[in-house]
Write a structure and sequence with these properties.
single chain; mainly alpha; ABC transporter involved in vitamin B12 uptake, BtuC; two-stranded antiparallel sheet; 2 strands; 76% helix; globular
């Protein structure tokens, strides 16, 4: 059993570390900006015009967006793992991400005049994919962990085929969607940030209220039923919340894999399985991990830029194989 004061201290330390890393990340790029200059720009009006433009219009929105998306996907993964009783559950592996991406791509390529409906399309696509996976994985004695993964593979393949078909018939419009498909934060400014932020706030508030239910359901269906809880209702509500957080993230920057798988595992090792600490820890770590991936992608290989989604796949793929090898399901 993890010591509660220690768990709380670890969570606070991780949030503080994430904020510090964000300030440093703002200063990294083709033009390096010292931390004191960043702080002066953020909290006073005496900075240079060049630094002011770089920080406020380019780097700060991008860093904040990476943090918000990372937090969203990590919380989504942690909730899905509670719902499915499977530590391999994550928005990408369960088809939620690809379902949301397919529906968003329909809007982007086939009906670009309706881009204001992209968040709704992402949510509908993710929810439909999750429903299919649940329907295929459901058994009389509960949800089969292996069947969930296999169902997710099938849904991912189906949506991947749909994405490929759209890419062929709308090849003239594809260049605008390529970076988005790879989970890139390049050229994402205040518009993307302002689009996702209100939804994220709603999702985070609902996640706070979901902590008790997540703790109950992780103890098993029998215990939850003995406590007078409607297990199926809890699963449905938590799943909708998880899909919502993942879908708005896909709508903003595209497909980011493995954050929802890797980060909750890291959080669980640090603070245990109590969702009172696991959820905020996943939030902080998710923000930190995706921000580091994006910062690394735009600085380590300069002048080339590697999308954060590709770097997360390089990191998360081997970790997924490790979990499979260890039988962590």
């Amino acid at each position: 059993m993890m010591n509660k004061p220690r768990s709380g201290a670890i969570v606070l330390f991780t949030f503080s570390l994430t904020i510090l890393a964000a300030v440093i990340a703002i200063g990294l790029g083709s033009v390096t900006i010292p931390v004191p200059e960043i702080i002066k720009t953020l909290f006073s009006a005496t900075s240079t015009a060049v630094h002011d433009t770089i920080i406020w219009d380019i780097r700060l929105p991008r860093v904040l967006l990476a943090m918000i998306i990372g937090a969203n996907i990590a919380i989504s993964g942690a909730l899905l793992q509670a719902v499915m009783g499977n530590p391999l559950a994550d928005p990408g592996l369960t088809g939620v991400t690809s379902g949301a991406a397919f529906f968003v791509l329909i809007i982007m390529l086939a009906a670009p005049e309706y881009t204001q409906f992209i968040p709704i399309a992402a949510f509908v696509g993710g929810l439909l994919a999750a429903t299919i996976v649940y329907a295929l994985a459901w058994r009389r004695n509960g949800i089969s962990p292996i069947t969930i993964i296999l169902s997710g593979v099938a849904v991912n393949a189906l949506c991947g085929g749909g994405i490929g078909y759209l890419s062929i018939i709308y090849s003239d419009r594809l260049p605008s969607a390529v970076q988005w498909l790879n989970g890139s934060l390049a050229a994402k400014g205040n518009n993307a940030l302002f689009m996702v932020f209100p939804y994220a706030i709603v999702g985070w508030i609902l996640s706070i209220f979901a902590i008790r239910k997540a703790n109950i359901i992780r103890m098993g269906d029998q215990v939850a039923s003995n406590l007078g809880e409607n297990v199926n209702r809890i699963r449905i509500l938590l799943s909708i919340l998880a899909v919502f957080l993942a879908a708005i993230s896909v709508a903003a920057i595209g497909m980011i894999g493995f954050v929802g798988l890797v980060v909750p595992h890291m959080a669980r090792l640090l603070v245990g399985s109590n969702y009172k600490y696991l959820l905020p820890m996943s939030m902080a770590l998710g923000a930190l991990v995706l921000m580091l991936a994006d910062t690394g992608g735009r600085t380590l290989f300069s002048p080339l830029e590697i999308p954060a989604g590709i770097l997360m796949a390089v990191i998360g793929g081997p970790y997924f194989l490790y979990l499979m090898r260890k039988g962590k399901f």
